[in-house]
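Q: Got a minute? One more chain.
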Amino acid sequence: MPESAHDPGRGPPSASDPALEAIVRGATPSPPPGARTLAPRRSRVAEFLPVALAVAAAVLVRLLSVGLPIEGDTVAYGALAESLAAGEGYAIDGVAHDRYPPGHPTLLALVLLLGGTVTGTTRVLGLLLGAAAAALVVSLARRLGRGKLPLALTVALAAAHPSLALFAGGLVPGSEATGLVLLLGALRLALAGTDRGRRVALVLTGLLPLVRYDLVAFPIVVAVLLVREARGADVRARLRAAAPALAILAVPLLAWLARTWIVSDRPFGSGYASHGFALARLPRNLLVLAGLVLPAAGLGLLWIFVPTGLRRLWDARVADRSVVRTALVGVAAHLLLVALFAGPTYAGDGALAFSSGSLRFGLAAVPFVILA
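A: Always. Here it is, folded:
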């Protein structure tokens, strides 16, 4: 028969008995090692599974477009990427290019160096970026709380939301997907609560305008926050304290604008001559943003939940609430910037004409509507 834990004939139990010591201290004896690791393992699975499902669903949705040809701006991105990969500079047909910022073509060029055609590489990169965007949306949803949406619906929207499936690496695999992944990645790293994460998030934020000029609102809003939170008795002292971080945000864009100015005598290049501040376009652009982009981002019926959801995000109980609030202010500033400065395009006499193209201008807002 097995021997009992304590034989009365052997005298009192030893003072070094761990179970006795735990009882004397009033503590519960430690569980077996296997039971101790079970809960963290389940927690990791619960954290990873929704992200994995979102990635798988996003890939399946975008696989339908992998074999399609590319057109529009994507053709120009491909030509620029080919020129960069061949070591011929940022040019198309040997002529220095001054319209599109270099972020997305540079990423595409790096992938082209691995081999493959421009069309295939563009489609595969778009698929990967769309999957990354879906994973980041779900990760942020679990970090910040999912508002009124069930987790399954959050996963489905992150993977197959019409705006994301169209412009985030789907049918139109352009710079929108790259900008969205940088933005969401910066937010997730900033919320990680580590110094390294915040530094990398700052670098990614500074790169946003090099992917799309209309994302310049985000580094501006972050710069204002950095100055406000810097230590100093007055504004000048706070500016000095925040100068290194401000340089990280500003130098990439300023260097690129200087290059473009040298090439074309215009800091933003010759391709944006029709864009600029115009009050005459403001009523229509605001109407489209309010009546098409944002409700489409919320899928119509879900729009009624967005105001309370945004308020919940604004008051999110996270260690660094200012990060979330800065992101929300950045989204609002981004949409206002588009409404104020977007000019005519092929779609009509306003850049936000009622067409599918207008959805790309609100793409940065879509993940936050899902989170709300």
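A: The first strand starts at residue 91 and ends at 92.
Q: Perfect, thanks.
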